[in-house]
Amino acid sequence: MNIQQGFAVWLTGIPASGKSSITKELVKKLRELGIAVVVLESDEMRAILTPEATYGPEERDRFYRTLVSIGEMITRNGISVVFDATANKRHYRDHARSRISKFAEAYVRCSLEVCVRRDPKGIYHRAAAGETQTVPGLQSPYEPPLYAEITLDGQDTPIRSANTILAALKKLNYI
Asked: Residue 149 and which of 104, 112, 130, 161 are 20 to 30 A apart at CA?
């Protein structure tokens, strides 16, 4: 039996750029098309892989290597994956690209000012209060993609962004 490999889409951008909202819409649309998809959302996966996260460099490296390995294993078994994860260093996402043949990076570009205003998880609020020193794009570097297959405006609606991703996946012959 020959199982066709699933594809992977990695939504990246600084915290509160809109990744999770876009992911929800994208997954809904993929499932409507009959495509089996798993979301690997960084907060949910951290609770499993690094339950007492320090967000230090070595821990982040290990976390993203493991996340990519899980995504690769899932796609090899014919299920598609949406990575909903900041992955502040480019090499994290490039590692996924090197391991998953049907891979697309979707960069959610959004200004820090807009993200701070949104702050649905209170990340920037905690940073301002001195409770954290590792927020990507604020206290830690965030390296935007150099060659993302898809660039999205973080102020666009999640539905429009999901439709943009779907169009790109069709153009890449992933769906």
From this structure: 112
Residue 2 lies in a domain: no
3-class DSSP assignment, residue 49: helix
- Express each pLDDT in 89-131 by its tens digit: 999 999 999 999 999 999 999 999 999 999 989 889 988 898 9
- SS3 of 65-109: HHHHHHHHHHHHCCCEEEEECCCCCHHHHHHHHHHCCCEEEEEEE
Q: What pTM value is reported for the model?
A: 0.92
Which residue range forms the structural domain that includes residue 159? 8-170
pLDDT at 1 over 60: no
